[in-house]
Each structure stands twice: as C-alpha cells, then as structure tokens.
Specification:
This protein is of the alpha/beta class. It contains 14 helices and twelve strands. InterPro entries: ArAA_b-elim_lyase/Thr_aldolase (IPR001597), Low_specificity_L-TA-like (IPR023603), PyrdxlP-dep_Trfase (IPR015424), PyrdxlP-dep_Trfase_major (IPR015421), PyrdxlP-dep_Trfase_small (IPR015422).
Length: about 350
Amino acid sequence: MGRNDPYIDLGTDARTAPTSRMWEAMQAVALNATPFKGQEAVEALLARACELTGQAAALLLPSCTMANLIAMMAHADRGDQVILEESSHIAWSEGWGMASIAGIYPKLLKGRRGAIDLEEILSAVEASVFSHRPRTKLLCLENTHNAGGGAVLPQAYAAEVCAAMKEREIYVHLDGARIFNAAVALDLPVRQMTEMYDSVTINLNKGLCALEGALLCGSAAMIRKASQLARALGGDSQHKAEIIAAAGLIGLNEMVDDIAKDHRRAYLFASAVQRIPGIGVELQRVQTNIVMVDVSGTGLAAKEVLQRLKIRGVASYLYSDAVLRFVFHREINDEDALRASRLLGEAIG
C-alpha cells in the first residue's frame, strides 16, 4: 500500500511490504550469492535469532504454521497428548496438522486471553479414567495471543508454567509469531521472554515486515530433529533461501523499534471507536497492535459491517458473528487510524 493509496488495510499485518532496505538487501544477495555466500546469509539470520531468543539453534522455514507443526512433531510422538488454549492459533487456524499429520491428540483448555490456569493444566496432565491416563508430552502457549486481541502473556505466569512443566518432564513450545509485539509491550528483551521455553517460533513478516518466512528456535538436538522433519514436509529445500534471510535479518535488526508505533495507533483507533454508539471496545485490553471490536450493539451482524467497511475502503477481518479484528502495522499512520474509525461510524449508520 503506498502512502497515496486511500485504501486502509487493517485485515492483517501479514501483508506488509518489505522496506526499501530489505529490497536492496534481497537484490544484492540474489545478484552476488554463490552457494557459499548464500549459506552465509542464512547462517547470519539463524545466529541472530539464537542471540535474540537465548536458544541454542534455529531453522528457517516457510511459515509459522509449518514451524509450529514441526515443533510439535519434534517434541511429541504419535498418540501423545498436547495441551493448548482452546482459541489458540495452532488449534483453530493451522488445519489440525497436529492430528492429521502428526497423530498427536489435542487437549483444548479454556484460558483467559491465552493464559490457562496452571491448576487446569496440571489437572489435564494428571486426569485418568479407570487408571488410564494419556501421556502428555507438550504444552503450547501463544504470545501475543491473536484471538485474545493481541494479549500479552504475563511474564511471571509464563515462568511459573514453564517451571512446573519442567518438573514433570513436559516440553513447552511458544508460538511467538508476534513475540516482538509482546516484548515491546512489556519493555523486556525478547531473550528474557523466550529462553525459558523448549522451542519458539517467530514470524518474519507481520510486524517485522520481511517478505516471508519463519524461524524455529530450540536446543541443538531439537533443531536437528526438526530439520529432518522439515525435509519430509517440504520445508527444508527453500531455494534462494538467502533472499528470504537477507530481508529477515533486517527485520530482526531494524524493525522492532517501530512496533511501538503500531501499538500506539491501535490504541488511538480503539479510543476513537469506543465513542461510537453500539460499538464495544475494552481499552484496557488493547495491549499491542490488535483491536477486537464488538458490533453486536449496533443491531448489525459483523459480516454486514465488514462489507460496508470494504465499500468505504477499509479492510478488517471477521472474527465471529459479532466481532471484527483490526490489525495495525507499519503501513498505517495516525491519519489512517482516525479515518478508519470515522468510516466505521459511517458504516454502522
């Protein structure tokens, strides 16, 4: 989206275009890479990912969906139980690969904006019927939590849960597609938020604005196994991976500071929208770059409001019959945020 484009895309931050610096770096590595130099670009990205997350090794993959699936397959065997928050991205938006491909049984627990009570987790781990108990090998958490409106997991909660799982020899995987948003919101180094986990995924587009790609980070042994699994799933043969790596490295090094602007604009939008009659927005829940807007009080279905917004040049995302999701990113400025709020008011009449 150019700055002269009146269209305001708040549907997702996954469609952000690479920066000019990224395009230049991608072109330079594409023109100059020999097989050796191309591998250097990928290795530089993986080394930076390990430095940022506190993990020992990393793997570049096409998407976070594949990275999450491979992490689950690396940690759990067929027939094992994995515990997930019931509205998590892995549970609802990744095609149930854990079941259809990995043969892992998902145990879905209700959380509060992504955070499952530790007592609920332990109860699921220890539950048995007639002395039969499924073997729990893995717990998956998500930070930030997409369906929770970009909610950030409290640091003390994450540390307590990881410690409890370690005592029981249960792995903990973090779907950290937007972990940099969480780190900015809490004003903490990413490493402090990720080194406690057994594995972490990071999305290189969205807030980091790279062309595509995801990182899976974990122990050296886990990543060796993940690499073998990636080969079987078609994710280990990314041709021209150095081009993806060149943009991804700039994303990790240069784009994190701009994420705070996305958060501020999300709050600016939410503050304006909450004054529209019939609209429900909880300002205290706007922690990062996602705003969930309940339109049920307007008497209109969210799908109808979505279409009315589209006609007016604003893209949103249908979360439920009553709720629309608005996501802020580098290509949205203050004027866009305020204009989108005005157009939402027009859309509901």
